[in-house]
Amino acid sequence: MSFIELRNIKKEFKIGENIVKALDGINLSIEKKEIISITGRSGSGKSTLLNILAGLEKSTDGEIIIEGEHIEKMGESQRIKFRRKNIGFIFQSYNLLPQYTALENVALPLALKGIEPKERIEKAREIMKQVGIETHENHRPNEMSGGQQQRVGIARALITDPAIVLADEPTGNLDTRTSIEVMELLINLFKEKGTTFLLVSHDEVAKNYTERTINLLDGKIVDIEQIFRGTILT
Ligand SMILES: Nc1ncnc2c1ncn2[C@@H]1O[C@H](COP(=O)(O)OP(=O)(O)OP(=O)(O)O)[C@@H](O)[C@H]1O
Ligand SMILES: [Mg+2]
Fold first, then answer.
1. Measured between alpha carbons, how far is 52 from 2 in angstroms, rounded to an integer?
2. Is 27 within the bounds of a domain?
3. Mind listing the pLDDT tens digit for each residue in 175-234?
């Protein structure tokens, strides 16, 4: 069995009389330390897939197995506990708490785990240094640039040393140059730490940074290679 196994994952939303199949039978195996990008046009199911993997949303059907543990069988509180321990999530719009400083935002996951202030401040400073944002520990989100806020978001995702990091368009709100800096930071960190990383992006450039690309269309996986062969044969 692989590190992460998705088996026939379906997610349906009922809108009035209609059923939207956001995910329509996703089968995917992911090995430890793999770095994968998930691409596909708007509405293809990328965010839904990531949210289900993170345990932020529940699938309608199918199995999600991470290191032998069935996520879909867990109750709400067990799922939250599992997520806090194993998964880091990086958002397109950073999702920082506006009233907190950068340092407090980064340390928050440790506060939720009940770690003492002294230890969490120490750990937050260490991780902020790793992502190059140690100079801004007392700044609030609205006192930082997009790139700086995303570095805080990255530090917050990494402070618990998660085995898996999921990022939904992490460079979507950044200019090209800052995007490249942030992507290189992420990829270098994850290679060094051996983190399993799934990156959602509809930016073609993301593919250059990752080892495998999963292409989604209408809630189904359409393999890049398959598309390529199809083009050649027809
Ligand atoms: N909470 C919801 N209620 C109803 N439909 C939803 C909900 N969330 C997503 N959908 C639908 O599921 C489909 C997949 O949405 P999703 O957000 O996963 O797409 P995406 O690939 O992330 O798109 P984008 O690139 O625009 O972020 C879309 O048709 C969307 O309208
Ligand atoms: Mg999305």
1. 18
2. no
3. 999 999 999 999 999 999 999 999 999 777 777 888 889 999 999 999 753 334 334 433
For 89, the domain range is 33-58+75-233
At residue 173, what are phi and psi to the nearest 5 degrees? -105, 10
The per-residue pLDDT for range 97-110, each reduced to its tens digit, is: 999 999 999 999 99
pLDDT of residue 128: 97
> Does residue 186 form part of some domain?
yes
Atom 29 (ligand 1): residue with closest C-alpha? 43
Give 45 Cα–ligand 1 centroid separation in angstroms.
6
User: For atom 14 of ligand 1, which residue has the closest CA?
Assistant: 45
Q: Which residue puts its alpha carbon closest to atom 16 of ligand 1?
A: 45
Q: Rounded CA gap, 176 and 179, in Å? A: 5
What's the gap in Å between 25 CA and the centre of ligand 2? 18
Closest ligand by atom to 44 CA: 1
Q: What is the pLDDT of residues 3-20, one digit of tens each?
A: 999 999 999 999 999 999
Average pLDDT, the chain: 92
For the domain that residue 193 is a member of, what is the CATH number? 3.40.50.300
Identify whether 115 is part of a domain: yes
Q: Which pLDDT score, from 0 to 100, does residue 231 have?
A: 45
CB within 8 Å of 114: residues ≥ 6 apart: none
Neighbours of 117 (CB within 10 A): 10
Using the predicted structure, report yes or no on whether residue 60 has a pLDDT greater than 60. Answer: yes
HSE-up (13 A, CA, CB side) for residue 182: 30
> Mutation test of ligand 1: which of 37, 47, 168, 216 has the most ligand atoms closer than 8 Å to its C-beta?
47
Q: How many structural domains does the chain have?
A: 1
